[in-house]
Every structure is written in C-alpha cells, then in structure tokens.
Structure of Putative tRNA nucleotidyltransferase:
Amino acid sequence: MTVPTSDADRRLRLLADATATLGTLSDVLNPLGERFAEAGHELFLVGGSVRDAILGRFSGDLDFTTDARPEKVQALLKGWVDKQWDTGIEFGTISAIKHGQEIEITTFRADAYDRVSRNPIVEYGTTLADDLVRRDFTVNAMAMKIGADGSYTFVDPLNGMDALLAGELDTPSAPENSFNDDPLRMLRAARFVSQLGFTLNNRVFEAIKEMASQIERITAERVQVELNKMILGMYPVDGINMMVDSGLAAYVLPEVPQMKLEIDEHHQHKDVYQHSLTVLQQAIDLEEGDPDLVLRWAALLHDIGKPDTKRNEPGGGVSFHHHEVVGAKLVRKRMRALKFSKQMVDDVSQLVFLHLRFHGYGKGQWTDSAVRRYVTDAGELLPRLHKLVRADCTTRNKRRAAQLQATYDDIEERIARIAEQEDLARVRPDLDGNAIMELLNIPAGPQVGKAWTFLKELRLDRGPLERDEAEAELLKWWATQQG
C-alpha cells in the first residue's frame, strides 16, 4: 500500500533538493556569503533563483538581495569577481561574473510606483520583508540566506512554499495594488501559468479581469518579451487560455479571442480558437530540440484571417476563402505593432500565407514545377512548414487524418527525390547576371533583372537546363522583348 505524501514531506524533500542544487555552486555562493557576513551584511538568494531550485528546474541564474548599499556591494566584489558592471545601479543592482557564473545583487528595495507608467520610484528598504512584499507573486518571494559557514537557510515570510505546493499564483499584497503598481505583472501571470503549469488564485484572476485595460500602460516591447516567454513555456495553451478568459488577450492579441466566434468548416467539432490551440500543441509535439518561437507563433495565428473572411454559403455551409492571405496581413500588422523584428514578422506571416498551399496537392497531381515552387516559396522555412501543415490536421476522422498524413509523406518524398537531382534549396537561373549581359550585349540595369527573373521562372518550370538550351530560351525571350 502506497502512503500518500504529505505537504510537510514534500516541503522537506523539495528544500533538500534545492539545497543540493545550490551546493553545486558552492564555489561561488560560499565565499560570497562569507564576504558579506564578515562585513556585517546579510545576503539572500531570492526570486526565480529560489523558486526554480525548489522546482528542480534551476537555470543557473543567481539573483541576490542584501542590506548593503550598491557602493558597498561594489567594494565587497572588487578583487574577487572576474568582472563587474553597474548598468543597473540606479535601481540598486550590481552585476558581476565569477567562474563564468553571472550574478546580480540588489539592495533591499521598498519601491513606490507612480501608477502612470510602470517606473518605480526607487527607495531602499531596511529589511528582507520590505523587499519580498514588493515582488510580483508569492512563489517569487521566497529567499535563501547565504551563511558565512556555507549554510543555506530558507526564509518564507509570505508563504510562497504553500502556493508552490498548491501550484497557485497569488500576490504578496492585494492584487489590485500589485497590478496598479506594475500592470506587466498581469502578463507575467500568463507567462508563469505557461512556464510552471500553475493556476491563478481566484482573487488574482478576478483582479486581472477588472484591470486588463491597464496593460495598455506597458510598452509594446515589454509586452512582446512576456508573450514570447509565455509561448515558449511548457504549457502555452494554458497561458493563452488564461489571457483570453481574463480579457487580457483582447488588449495584447485581440485577433486570438476573436477566433472563438468562428466555426471551422473542416473541423466542426471545434471553433477556430480551439482548433488553433490544438494545432499549437501538435506543432509543439513535432518540435525537435529547443522550442521553436517562429513555429509556435505561426501555429497559433495560422487561422486569424477566418473571422474577416467568413461567408455563409447556400445550404448552410461556411467558407473562409483566402483566409491565409488575409491572415498573413493581420499577422504582419499585429507583430509590427508588438515591435517584432522584421525577420520574425516575415517568417511567421510567410508560414501563415503558405499553410494552405499543400491542400492543392490532392492525390499527388502537382507537377514537378509546382513542387519546386512550393519549396522555393518556403525557402529556409520549409522544415517549419512541414510541421505546421502536419499539425494543422485536427480531424477526429481517423481515416481522413491518415490520408492527410500519407499525402504529406508523399509530397516530402517527392521533394527529396527532386532534391537529389537538383539543388532545390537554392533554385537560381542557369545563367548568372554576367552571362546574361554578355549574351544579350546589354549593360547592368533593369533589363538584366527581367532576364534573370525569366530564367528563374524557366528553371522552376523545367528544372536545370544545359547551358546551350538556357541560352537559346533566353535569346527567344529577348527577341519578344524587342518588339
């Protein structure tokens, strides 16, 4: 008979595991604690560093807080660390590297906020409690005191361990006060739901519902950072659901909750929103190695063009003609508003634009020319496009699902066969610019570009040509241009 593990037992085991994890960094932690103690100061490991050590997902980040002022911290680190810098000194933070390990040490803070922006009015605290109570969530308000003798003492005045054991996010103070101070914490809640698999305390969820519009105080750049961390988490579907259910998504990703109203004609057991979350999860399941930010965004947003293209057809049917075209435009608009890089915008929108192309393949009726164009249009995104298209199959009809996967197996095999004969990854004309200018006796300019485009289209249609054949085709085309 298995005896259920009590919370007390779990607490002891988790703290023992955390202490063992921190022990692997004793060459940094122990002498650092000793230096501060000898100078009459306290030093605590805090925040995500403690939380993740307890959860067994320690990333190696070391964030500390201390009663020592920044100038004193600098003095204590001087001559011991390999390098230190003070770019965060206005917020009381000194950063350093020791044995390749990055550390950040921040003086106790008891900040106030102007509640217009999210900028704190930096004010130093006098106790650890001052510092911990200002943090976003109780699971991030636990600390480990680093002793002079190499000991680690767990400090938890806000019961963060209870919340961690319950898998719950709660705020140290009233959530309304916390979110008024810094609305970004609402989005951080979604991120932690995704990263940790936690749920929100009811009072936190209700506060976000009431205050969701306050997220508009936050810059697009900061919103983007949190959204990326959320979608890269282990449970992004839960994070997205939390954002939609609380109303937060209506302000940062409005196209996503709008999909809840649209019924997907291919998957009538799901609305477009649920279908998109399923595609996201299935795309994640197809990832190889690290989480793929581009693939995950494309999977989530691949059908956002459907609300704007929905048409009720005679007989009760529904269509979404050209939703991939509309969707690609919406992706570009939203991602630009969130200040994503040009490359990111281009990649995600192109995947959305191409995600339906495969469905024209039928039972393999595409010509080799069409296959070449599919590969060329996808370019370096082709491996991601393969995964997105496969993930986009969410039908419950096992026979249809098997047919779709078999058909995509077939197109991948054809791509591989043609690639063995041709350099599909780099489809270029059979003649370069210099050869074009020499053959046509023309200088560099727009006409060379037109000739190059003609030859590339020819290459896509017919595959590689012998040089004399390519020259003959170019001369025939050039003759038609002279009339």
About this structure: The two ends are 92 Å apart (CA to CA). The chain is about 55% helix and 10% strand. The CA atoms of residues 109 and 124 lie 4 Å apart.
